[in-house]
Amino acid sequence: MPVIESEGSCGELEYVYVANSPETIAVLQQIGLTNADIDEWTTDEGDCIDISAIGFDAGAKWFQESKGGFLDYTPEDAPEWAK
After folding, report:
1. Does residue 38 contact residue 26 with C-beta atoms inside 8 Å?
2. Which of 10, 33, 42, 77 has the highest CB neighbour count under 10 A?
């Protein structure tokens, strides 16, 4: 699912927004999230879902939008503190 916007600071991923759409909801449900889970991560405006915690809960080791989003490894060019 395409990332609309993401933000990180000081080594911490603050948010990763994807569109709140039927397609996104279907994918999230396929990986086991309930409607209550999805509602919890939906922005106040209702147009986006923050999947930052969901990605790491699913086993991601790193997030880098330029490398495709959530990664199951820490890239070699990551900061030394992350390795």
Report:
1. no
2. 33
Helices and strands, number each (H, E), in the chain:
3, 5
For 25-79, how does the pLDDT look when each residue is reduced to its tens digit (9 = 90+)? 999 999 999 999 999 999 999 999 999 999 998 899 999 998 889 999 999 988 8
The alpha carbons of the chain give a radius of gyration, in whole angstroms, of 13
Tokens encoding 10: 């000081």
> Hey, which bits of the chain come out as E strands?
3-9, 12-19, 48-50, 62-64, 69-71
